[in-house]
Amino acid sequence: MRFIRRWSTFGDTIYTGCQYLIGTTFILLVLITGYALFGFLILGLNAPQVVPDFANFQNSLYSMFRALRGQLNTKLFFHVNPAFTVLFFFTFYFGVFIIFCRLFSAIYIQGYKDAKFKLRLAPLDIQDYEMIPYIWQRLKLRLGITKPKQYRPTVRFEGMSTPS
């Protein structure tokens, strides 16, 4: 698939941004773990019978991943501490969805710009990047849609005969 230029650019984008994406994913997992621990300490230890999702650390970590998918029922949390619940989940959604989605997209966009710049600087090899236009041109020649180029131009001067 390297002979299509755009696909090669996307492959280079993923390759160059891979280490940044792994680092960002690690930071995201640390953030989710921190929110799960913080929620366990505030919501789980205060009233574990009211909020069973934060009764222990494993449940709170699972609840944070369920909150990312939108499957967590937050009505139970308002009975324990309504102000903290609003602040907790608002900062969690803001941090995860807005900041990290923009961070992941910025990594991909920068990697795409770098890959396009690198592609412009690299010498184009006809075997890798120009196969489709070459095959298309040869097909049109075979079908008779275009005429072949003359490799030796014929020059005719007035009054001179051409050797045959």
Task: Briefly characterize the structure.
Residues 2-113 form the Polycystin cation channel PKD1/PKD2 domain. This protein has 164 residues and is mainly alpha-helical. The protein has helices spanning 5-46, 57-69, 82-121, 126-129, 131-143.
Structure description:
It is found in: Membrane. The chain crosses the membrane at residues 20-43, 83-109. InterPro entries: PKD1_2_channel. Residues 2-113 form the Polycystin cation channel PKD1/PKD2 domain. It is a multi-pass membrane protein. This protein is an all-alpha fold and 164 residues long. The chain has one domain (7-134). Helix content is 68%, strand content 0%. The protein contains 5 helices and no strands. Helix 1 crosses helix 2 (57-69) and helix 1 (5-46) runs antiparallel to helix 3. The protein starts with a helix and ends in a 21-residue tail after the last helix. The mean pLDDT is 82.
Helix and strand layout, with pairings?
Blueprint: H1 5-46, H2 57-69, H3 82-121, H4 126-129, H5 131-143
The biggest sheet, with number of strands, parallel, antiparallel or mixed sense and barrel status, is: none
Which structural class is indicated by helix and strand composition?
Answer: mainly alpha
How many helices in DSSP terms?
Answer: 5
Q: Name the overall outline.
A: rod-shaped
Topology as H/E string?
HHHHH
Number of strands: 0
Query: Runs with pLDDT <50, length 5+?
Result: none
Distance, first to last CA: 47 Å
Strand content: under 5%
Overall structural domain count? 1
Fraction of residues in helix: 55-70%
Rg (CA only):
31 Å
Provide mean pLDDT, rounded: 82
